[in-house]
Design brief:
- With 240 residues, the protein is mainly beta.
- It has a single domain, classed as Beta-galactosidase, Chain A, domain 5, CATH 2.70.98.
- Helix content is 0%, strand content 52%.
- The protein has no helices and 18 strands.
- The protein has a nine-stranded antiparallel sheet with strand order 6-7-8-9-18-15-14-11-12, with no helix packed on it.
- A hairpin with a 5-residue loop joins strand 2 and strand 3.
Length: 240
């Protein structure tokens, strides 16, 4: 029987984060200290903040064991951060760095990528078709008092209310670099900012007491020189 392993904790500024490298490198907990609110809906094996290397739900990257490749601690005067890497087969790895920036400790910064380590001969140096799919599952403390809000690239203002099924936003219907989960009862919003050049489409999926706000890269092969990357961050702000 394997001894219970302890999640890696990052604590700095506004946040305490818990990460389990041995199950998909997933983040289990995003506790916002000033408001005392937990934003992630998770169990060790499923949900929380996950990333996949394909368009399919729970594709490679979701449950593989990740290794810790770097760890910095605020106590030693550095930015609190954790770097992870998971082998997703075919010479590819998913790399993820989770940090609480020293200069802006209100943020949780996540920099992720699918990187080609060793792609087989005969492929011209390119991998199988991959997609970096960022799959966070947020908890809804007040399921009837929440919505997802953003201004799309085309300037239209969107409020996505809880309803069944997936809702996709592509092209100029994508959020213009940020979208937020608004809880009217708490008076707080979780803002997710991202780089439009890296995010090909966004997806909202409402579950029971939870919501996914997913970022998808384009889908393509990668080579050593052409990884797929998504850098994004989260911040809790008062609802305006």
């Amino acid at each position: 029987m394997e001894l219970a392993r302890t999640p890696v904790e990052l604590k700095s500024g506004d946040w305490v984060l818990k990460v389990v490298p041995w199950v998909g490198g997933r983040m289990l907990s995003m506790m916002h200290l000033p408001s005392g609110t937990q934003w992630l809906h998770s169990r060790v094996e499923v949900d929380g903040y996950e990333e996949y290397s394909g368009v399919e739900y729970r594709s490679a990257g979701c449950t593989e064991e990740y290794i810790v490749t770097g760890r910095n601690l605020e106590q030693s005067g550095e930015e609190e951060s954790l770097s992870l890497e998971g082998d997703v087969g075919g010479g590819l790895v998913v790399q993820r760095k989770i940090s609480i920036p020293k200069e802006n400790p209100q943020l949780v910064q996540i920099d992720s990528g699918i990187v080609a380590r060793s792609v087989g001969a005969g492929s011209g140096g390119f991998s199988r078709l991959v997609c970096l799919r960022v799959h966070p599952v947020f908890t809804l403390l007040h399921p009837t008092e929440v919505f997802v809000a953003f201004t799309s690239i085309n300037g239209s203002k969107q409020e996505i209310q809880p309803e069944a099924g997936e809702q996709w936003f592509e092209g100029d219907l994508r959020p213009n670099g940020e979208w937020m989960l608004v809880d009217k009862c708490l008076g707080l919003s979780l803002v997710n900012r991202f780089n439009l050049d890296e995010v090909n489409k966004c997806m909202v999926y409402w579950g029971t007491g939870q919501v996914n706000m997913e970022l998808w890269s384009e889908e393509r092969p990668v080579s050593k020189d052409t990884p797929l990357t998504i850098s994004h961050n989260y911040q809790v702000v008062p609802t305006s």
